[in-house]
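Reviewer has doubts. Consider these tokens.
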Amino acid sequence: MIKKIPISLAWSGGKDSAYSLYVLNKTSEFQVVRLHTTLVEGTKRVGLHGIQESLIHKQASLIGLPLDTIYYPESGDNQAYEKAMTGYLRQLKQEGIFHVAYGDIYLEDLKQYREAQLEKAGIQPIFPLWGRNTRQIVNKILHSGFLTAICAADADKIYKCWLGKVLNQEFLDALAPSVDPCGENGEFHTFCFGGPIFSEKISILLGETIARSYSYEDSQGEVHKKQFWFKNIKLID
């Protein structure tokens, strides 16, 4: 019997990482042996998703895999983030894990960044969803029985009323043509609370929807402001 290659999967708690695990579980080559999540140090939440750490741990427990948490400063200091990740990758190698998987689909710059960082650490990247059609991916996610809630969204792309709603065909039909159906460009993020990788459905409570504004500088040095919606999702024990 051929021994499968052990992998640590980057886990955001959303549909793409959940579906990546589902896909990898069906392969004969790889075996996901642990999950890892990056969390903002001060808030203990997944940065772009705004999801509480307790929800991520609940997902891992119902999946039946160990979860490693990696904290980085709320300031967004990229060097501090990379230092934290380098320490984790070193830990993986000590445990005999030399492959890390991501749920990225087509953002080439992000893929190249991940590949460069892992190459420095002597780790091989795996992208189980790379290059696939995002409309086909989201349809397979729905048809496979995954339940995901919209937990964060770009206020310029997604109406506030969708926050906390389950991602379904109605939501997909309401998206503007410019919005990727998987939210691959950061238009929206999800929290997965049910599906074939979980032993049972996660009970959640939907709280308030919060608006937060961020400033960023483009390649021309011009500063822009963006507003995002975040749905406060809580775990029901």
